[in-house]
Amino acid sequence: MTALIVGGDRLGSIPQVLNERGIENYIHWTGRKKGMRNKTIPTNIDMIIVLYDFIEHNLTNIIKKEAKSMEVPCIFAKRAGSDLAMKLDVCKYCRRCCT
């Protein structure tokens, strides 16, 4: 399973949280610069994780819209492993695909 993580300059304990839930691969975009708005979301991802306390505001709206059109689950969390773990545990989409 592959996740696109948008936001956060450093991921800290987030890769460990993802690994514990069966998400082995991830792509990380910092999401701080305007140029990120023009990036294309990869088609080989299974979910998008937006770290909303470290992201350019307009990019959040673009990611949300693209996730919906691609029918990919999109999770919004703080850049804290504990918050992301909680959001992944309650996500109805993730319960189907994460262990």
TrEMBL record:
Protein's name according to its UniProt entry: DUF2325 domain-containing protein
What is the native source organism of this protein? Answer: Crassaminicella indica
What InterPro entries does the annotation carry? UCP020408
Family statement drawn from the similarity comment of this UniProt entry = Belongs to the UPF0751 family.
Q: Name one Pfam family in it.
A: DUF2325
